[in-house]
Write a structure and sequence with these properties.
7-stranded mixed sheet, binds adenosine-5'-diphosphate, binds magnesium ion, Phosphoribosyl-aminoimidazole Synthetase, Chain A, domain 2, 13 strands
Length: 349
Amino acid sequence: MLENKNPQRTSLEKMGEFGLIKHLTQNFELVQPSSLKGIGDDAAVMDFKEDKTVVSTDLLVEGVHFDLGYMPLKHLGYKSVIVNLSDIYAMNAVATQVTVSIAVSNRFGLEALEEFYDGVRTACKLYQVDLIGGDTTSSNKGMLISVTAIGTAKEEELVYRSGAKPNDLLVVSGDLGGAYLGLQVLEREKEVFKVNPNNQPDLEPYSYIVERQLKPEARKDILEILNKLEVKPTSMIDISDGLSSEILHLCEQSEVGCNLFEDKIPLDPTVISTSEEFKMDSTMIALGGGEDYELLFTIDQADFDKIKGNPNLTVIGHMTDKKEGAHLITRANTKIQLKAQGWNSFSEE
Ligand code: ADP
Ligand code: MG
C-alpha cells in the first residue's frame, strides 16, 4: 500500500517533452462525437452544436490535497478526473472532455507518470470522456495536477445552485462521511508504518471507507435515474466539502432557509462503527467531512412519489423561508444553526 521505495525509474529528462507527452497519451482514443481534434495541435477543437457548454477546473497540490504516502498514483490519476466530472454532473450536464495538466519534480520518473495516466485512462473510459489536451511541466518540489472538465447540456436541462424554493425537499445520493473517515484510517496507518515498517496494516474492515477516499466515483448514475423518473432538481451541488457547507451554498444562492434532520442523514455501517472507534460523532463527520462526491439537490414536493423508495436517494430535509435560517434538527429534537465546518484548504490545523 505505502510508497514503493524501489520502483524502476526512467528519468523524464531523457524522454524529452514531446516524447513524454506522446508516450503518456498514446493509449487514449476519442469516443465523443463532439471531440473534433484532441491532443497534438496547438489547441483542441470541439463542436457542441446547439447545446450549452459547461466547464470546471480543479487544482490539486501534493501535501495539501493528496499525500503520496498512501495515495497510489493510479488512484490519484483516477480521482483527479472524478472530482472534476462530479462538478459537471452537479450542473445536470453530460461530461464529454477533460484536459489534464501536471507539474512534477525530478523525484518522479516515467513509471510514476505512466501509473498516473493509467488511472486517468480508467476514469475516462468508465465515464466516456475524452482526454483532449493538457500541459506538462516541471516543479521545484512535489506534484501539481490541474484538470479541466468540459460538458454539455441543453439550456433547459441545466441545474444551478440557485433554484431551490421554500418547501422543496432536500435530497442526497449515496451515504456520507466515508471518505473523511477513510482518510483518518489511512493517516493512522501511515503513522504506524513510520514506527514499524514491517507492520502490514489490515485495512480489510475499513475497505468501504478507504475506497471512498482513494477511489471515489462521480454520480453520473444519479442523473440517469432522475432522468428516467422524470425528476428535474430545482437546485443541485456536489458534496466535496461536507454536507453543511454545501447546504449553506444552496440556501445562500437560492435565498431560502432549510431544516435538515439528523436522523435522516444516510450513513454506512462502517462509518458508524469507525466513528465510534475514533471517538468522533458520525453526524459531525457527515456534516463536516469532505470528498464524498455525492449529489445534493432539491426537488419539488410533487416529485416525492417518484423518488421515494429509491435506495440511492434519501430525503434529508426541506427548504424553508430565508428568514427561518438553516438548521439541523437533532435526534433529541433540538434545533441547531448549521455552520460551514467543512474543511477548506485555507483553514489552519
Ligand atoms: P504548447 O507548447 O503549445 O503548450 P505542448 O507541447 O505543451 O504545446 O502540447 C502539445 C499537445 O500535447 C497539446 O495538444 C497539448 O494539449 C497536449 N498535452 C501536453 N501535455 C499534456 C498532458 N499532460 N496530458 C495530455 N495532453 C497533453
Ligand atoms: Mg504546453
